[in-house]
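#struct-help
A.M.: can someone run this one for me? Single chain, 246 residues.
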Amino acid sequence: MLTETQHQSYQWVQNNGQGYLQLPALNHPNVFHLFGTKLLSPETLRDHYPVIRLRQVHGDHIQMVNKTQDPLLFEAIPGDALITSDTNRLITVGTADCTPILLLDPINKVCAAVHAGWRGNVLNIVGKTVQKMIVDYQCDAANIYAGIGPTIKPCCFEVGPDVIDSVFKNTPYGEWVFSQKEIQNGAEKQRLDLERLNRLQLIDAGVPAHQIEAAGLCTHCLPNLFYSFRRDQKKIGNMVSGIMLL
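D.P.: on it. Structure tokens below:
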């Protein structure tokens, strides 16, 4: 349980009203979650929360977190998803166009944070995270709620043959997640919907569709709120998203 001092510190960040977004699907008792904007710095989070974050590699490695582990060690571990059943551990991912996904089983009291760009989607990172919650934490997919945070939307995510071929070859969703096919300088271009791709993978993993909620915001379109690697043509920052059992 939190001490009174810790509780006040958590409330101070939660109530600042500017630095992050929340989704109703994840608003459950004794759970805190956030989808960060560029207004909320990682330093601010670390000042008020026990933050844990992996060294992200656009892969499908999933790391389980428990209280015996030093949070600082995780930053040296390559991976793209964190799962925990422990309290007072804010498991987080950083994004700047890729998709942050937060998962919660409020019955078994298990949560997960997932970083999913198109490479992670090709490897089914979000589906594998759900499966690990089921196998290693005895969760039932029917009890899992999912929040899909701000990500680059198809309006701004035009991709070429390499991405198109990879999604079609490695997932069954190609016909559902691409749009506006055209040829530019002899190369095929289409627009990829990462939000829909993650939603379909969650549903196939057994998460009920009505328990999946998305922010619906495009990181590329909203420069005052979000960093965007594609828009800025370089890495200038990440939004931090996370979830914690209290």
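A.M.: thanks! The chain has a mean pLDDT of 89.
D.P.: also worth noting: The domain at 4-157+193-245 is CATH 3.60.140.10 (CNF1/YfiH-like putative cysteine hydrolases).
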